[in-house]
Amino acid sequence: MSKRLAKFLPVWLAVVVVAFATVTATAWAAAQMAPTAKPAKTIAADAPFLVHGDKTYLRSYKGQPIMLWQVATWCPSCRAGLQTLAQHKSLIDASHLKIIVLRDYQNGGYSGPDMATFVAQSAPTLLHDPHFVYGEDTEALFKLYNPHHYVDVYHLIGPDGDIALISSAPSATFDKIERFIKAGAK
Amino acid sequence: MIEAVYERAVVVHLALRIALGSRRALIGTGAVFVVVAAFYAVLLPATDTGGALGLVSLRFLTPSEFVMAVVMGLLLALTLALGLYGLRHGARAKPAGSVLGAVVAVLPALLCCSPILPLTIAAIAAILPAAGAFGVPTQRFIATHEAWIYGAAIVLMAWGLYSNARRILSCNVPTQATWNVRESRRCCEDDGVLQVRKP
Asked: Cβ of B136 and A109 within 8 Å?
């Protein structure tokens, strides 16, 4: 190895490490956000959440397709996700899909804006859309549906209560939601 | 303060005139700039896509993110040009500032809202349960301090550019009479002593 190459070795190593780390992390994230291989029938467990402070149960939505989406109101991808859903409002409104948007339990330990303010700021056209339900996670639901504490994760649940898909960031994965809608949510 | 920034800008300008003296260096640096700027243009909006990169993130590119991508691409491409020039002339490259800046600029897009951090923390927490408490607060910190993190990344990249420019100049005395650069004899072996002052 030439002396010059040896002198420049730290630079090459740094470039290779940065590039490798970025590509690996990106690929890993992409794999995590890809549609999960659908396991043998997984029935969505019942759990409570709060709407306007009142306790509501997931079982009360049985018989219709649900998108159960857990967000943090300080999360940029959650804001972008709401905006993406607003762009596809007509498709959603023409379907039977009910989108339950819940603020993570204790919003990840950070006060942040409440759900109404968050929606009003991000996608005001969705604030009074009857296909959307806004509320707060309870600890029980958070433990059941978000054990890894993702800040932006959703479950697509069929009318029979079968979990069809778990994914993240509707802003990047709306095509999966659209497929779910077209597959039977209409 | 302004004078210090001005003097550093002049150091960078002089070093770039030396390092980009050939057509080949200009074309190479231009190509690197395009590649790096394109990379950051895809990467920076990934905070809105939960870390998903590609055309999907490019759809969310805002004008301010585009400007940042151009600035980062420019800083890294010019630093690389200076580093390569220094290598050819026996100077020791010190890429720490630029590499650190490049890494810091990647953090918000990849860690803010993607599953990377929660899964990593969960894996660590299996061995060290106390680590479990750091996942969401770290993501929250990154999400709410995004602008500061990008600012720090750009400052680090600029510092890396200046450091490399300083090394180039410590091995080359410019011919312009308007600036007086004192060269250290051992500039290429050690850090070199460089003094730039107004005439």
From this structure: yes
